[in-house]
Structures are given as structure tokens and as C-alpha cells.
Amino acid sequence: MELALYDSDFGYYARAARRSGRAGDFFTSVDVGPLFGELLARQIIEMAALMHTPLFDLVEAGAGNGRLSGDILRAIQQRDPALYEHLRLQLVEISAEARADQRTTLGEASDRLASSSADLPADFEGVLVANELLDALPVHQVVMRGDELREVYVEARGDRLATVEGPLSTPALRQYFEHEHVALESGWRAEINLRAAEWTRHAVRALKQGFMILIDYGHPAAELYSAGHSTGTLTTFSRHTMAGPERAGDVPAWLERPGQQDITAHVDFTGVQHAAEREGATTLAFLDQTYFLLGLGAAEIDASDLKTRLALKTLLMPGGLGSTLKVLILGKNVGTPTLLGCSFRVRAT
């Protein structure tokens, strides 16, 4: 999965500045236009006011070409010019091609760009936003055979790739389930994202004071590792067509055309939350994107034109991005404030 997505020469994400949108392989909240960024800006402005820091860092991880940050910054400039003037934008993106496109995408807002790198900043104070980053981090896939947990590996068989089961590559996989009190039934398949927990710990350590807004597809551990997801969640997207998880006996869709399609797995938000809390963060909320955006005033936006109405529908409607995307809000050294994004309803369906 890491090679297929991130290899510098052949990786799916490394070879293009942008993969989403009508001309891409999948659709994100950013693709509906600037509305998503404008709503996020309202939450970030409130968070900045709660911090009272002379310099404020806005860090976007998995920033791509900077579209979301550009939307956020333009909204902040309009709503809170003083914050805009002392804000430093730090973009984190593994694709060199996407990084090269960021200043052009940001346009006039590029005057706020302080850094662009493949790595998180060593330390920062402010808000970190990660929109659909964790679901694209490489996962381990495991399967329960009787009472033995086995790992799924990839091997070459002539001119094709195939899966083969073997012993666990690291005891951390079994320990992960033990920490989250997860027990798979025989035959169940699941993904374990050790990288997401590692990334979260690193991000919280780097955050000296402020907030993290993590938005992604996923579930609490009790739901993710249950009968409803007993075939796992490893999925591909290509030309807006989803394939997976695989059925018994089929060649997994994620083995086909490596480097030419997206591969993703749902996030275990319980594991992410616990990783953050072990590093000193506080969980402030976990809720559907629908309720988060309604708390930020989505229902009060003038939707008299068709484009805005369609954007709101895409962002909010149950069964679409509104309910499938979850929002985890973390704080560090900021207490437990009541946030605007949590003012409508705090619920994860």
C-alpha cells in the first residue's frame, strides 16, 4: 500500500498534484467549492481567539496543492483581518508535484505560506487540520484463523500479485487489539493502521498549544471491528468507482493496477483518540460532519443560488459526506472549551 500510493516514481499520490474532483478518482468536501473551507475558517477563528497567542500557526497535513488552505485563508482574511496578518501557514504534503503547485493555488494568500514540506513541523502553536489524510496511510491487514491472528502479505507469482497469509510481522498488531479490547471472530478480516496512531502521537507532541481537527471516513473500534465490517474495509477508488472490500476467493481489487488507483481503509477513531490522549491531548468532540458544519452555521448560509444549494446538500446530507465523514477535535493546553462546531449536536451515527 505504501509503494502503490507513495513511491516517489510510481506512487499514486506522488505522481500528481491533484487526484480528487470531477476529473479525478473520488470526491471530497473540498471539491464542492470554497464553502467547506469557509465554514472551517469560522471554527479556526474561534480557536485562535481562545488561545491569545501572538503568532498563530495553521498547519494542514495532507494538503495536496493547497486548495483547502486557500479557501480557509481567504475566508479568514475577510472575517478576521487581524488574525490573517499574524497567521503562519504550514503545509505538509508528501507529493513534490503537489507542493510545487501550492503557491499558484493559494494565489494572493501565498503571502501567509511559511513552510511547505513532506514532514510535520517540529513544533507549532495553533490549529492542525487533516482532511481525509489518515484513511490513506498504509495499513496492515489481518485475518483470524481459528484462534490465531494471521497477517496478509503480498507476493509476486509470475507476472501477477497475490496475497498470502503468514505470521504477524510485528507484535504491535496483537497489542493494538489488546489495547482497544478487540476480539475478532474466526474468518473475520480487518485492517490495523499503526501508522495513523504513530502520526497522531507525533502531531500531538509537535503541538505545543492548540487544536487538531481530524476529518475522515471511519468508526469507533467497537463498530469497525465488528460483524458489520467482518470482511475489512480496504477499498479502491478509480474514476469515481469503488471496489472492495474483496469477496472470498476473489483477487483483491487493491492488488490491481498498483500506482494507478487510490487505496483506502476506514479509520479506527478510538485508536487515534487513545494515541492522542497518551501524548497529553484532550478529546473535545467526535461527531458527524453534518452536525459539525451545522454548528458552524451551514444552515444560515444564503442558498438562493443552485451552486450553493448543491454544495450544502453534498456536505450535509445523511448517507453522503455528511454522515460518512467523522470529525475528531482534539485540544492540548487549551482546557475544555465549548466550541462553535459542537453547538448544534455532538453525535456520530
**Structural class based on helices, strands and sheet pairing:** alpha/beta
The CATH top-level class label: Alpha Beta
Biggest β-sheet description: 8 strands, mixed
Order of helices and strands: HHEHHEHHEEEEEHEHEHEEEEHEHHHE
CATH topology: Rossmann fold
Q: How many helices does DSSP assign?
A: 13
Oligomer: single chain
What is the typical, i.e. mean, pLDDT? 91
What separation lies between the terminal Cα atoms?
29 Å
Low-confidence runs (pLDDT<50, min 5 residues)?
A: none
Protein architecture, described:
With 349 residues, the protein is an alpha/beta fold. The chain has a single domain, classed as 3-Layer(aba) Sandwich (Rossmann fold), CATH 3.40.50. It has helices at residues 2-6, 35-51, 67-79, 81-85, 96-100, 102-106, 172-179, 194-206, 221-224, 269-278, 289-295, 306-316, 321-324, and strands spanning 56-61, 87-92, 113-117, 124-131, 140-145, 148-157, 160-166, 189-192, 207-219, 235-238, 241-243, 262-264, 267-268, 282-288, 325-332. The strands form 3 sheets. Strands 1, 2, 3, 4, 9, 13, 14 and 15 form an 8-stranded mixed beta sheet that branches. A 4-stranded antiparallel beta sheet has the order 7-6-5-8, covered by helices on one side. A 3-stranded antiparallel beta sheet has the order 11-10-12, with no helix packed on it. Helix 2 (35-51) crosses helix 3 (67-79) and helix 8 (194-206) runs parallel beside helix 10. The longest helix has 17 residues, at 35-51. It is globular, with a radius of gyration of 20 Å. The two termini are 29 Å apart. The relative contact order is 0.14.
